[in-house]
Design a protein that fits this description.
- This protein is α+β, with helices and mostly antiparallel strands and about 100 residues long.
- It has three helices and four strands, in the order βαββααβ.
- The chain has a four-stranded antiparallel beta sheet with strand order 2-3-1-4.
- It is globular.
- The two termini are about 20 Å apart.
């Protein structure tokens, strides 16, 4: 079963739109990563400096492998330059409601 992940990127004041532009290119690589089934990028309607990813992966291991690749390549360091605090990843479990 696919895994959904919610990732919140709290950006420094005024840097949210810059991060979204940076992610336009970065998301292309993520979408080609083994196990990636989709990434949607949103901004909070009331706070353009809060960027949100909704990611779908074949499994948790595929996402964790991709994140390790980002850390090794230095891309996570580039993203960190936009942030006001740590990014927050939440793995989501479906419910039967």
């Amino acid at each position: 079963m696919s895994v959904k992940v919610h990732v919140a990127f709290p950006c420094q004041e005024g840097r949210g739109p810059e991060l979204v532009e940076f992610m336009r290119t970065a998301a292309l690589g993520a979408r080609k990563a083994p196990g990636n089934e989709g990434i949607e990028v949103f901004t909070d309607a009331d706070d353009p400096d809060m960027v949100i990813h909704l990611q779908t992966w074949a499994d948790r291991a595929a996402r964790e492998t991709y994140i390790a690749t980002l850390v090794e390549s230095g891309a996570m360091g580039q993203v960190s330059a936009f942030l006001a605090g740590p990014l927050q990843s939440t793995y989501l479990d479906p419910t039967d409601i």
